[in-house]
Amino acid sequence: MIELNSNIDPTSVNILIVDDIPLNILLIQKMLSRCKYNLLTANDGQQALDAIDANKVNLVLLDLMMPGIDGWEVIRRLRSKDDTKNLPIVILSALNSNEDVTKGLKLGANDFITKPIIMETLLNCVAETLNAQATA
Description:
Elements (H helix, E strand, L loop, with lengths): L13 E5 L3 H12 L4 E5 L2 H10 L4 E4 L8 H10 L8 E5 L4 H10 L3 E4 L4 H17 L1
Parallel strand pairs: 1-2, 1-3, 3-4, 4-5
Helix pairs in contact: 2-3
C-alpha cells in the first residue's frame, strides 16, 4: 500500500466526498476513516461547489451522475476558476467506458476510479494524489 508522504499530516487534509447516494458516501467514509483525514460530504454538485467555497479542500472524490449540477459540470466549473483550477479531483463513477474515462481526464480530473470501489485502490489513489499535490 502507498503511504502518505511523511511531511503531510492527515488530520490537516480535507477530503470532500460528493455523491447523491448516501450509502456510497458512507462506504467511502468507512474506507477512509482509518486514515484520519477530515471528511466533508456533499450530495450534489451545488453542495460540492458551496463546500469548496466555504472550506479549504485538498481533494475532491466526485461522482459524475447526480441530479442538478452533475460531476462533469463540477469539474468544468472548478477548472475555470483560478483558485480551484489545480484542486485535485478523483472521479468515482459507475461509468466505465473508455470514452467516459478519457472525457473525465481531459476535463481535468486527476484520476478515475470505477465503482464498485476497491478499498486498496481508493486508499492508494488518495495517497498518490495528495503526495503529488504536496510536491507540486
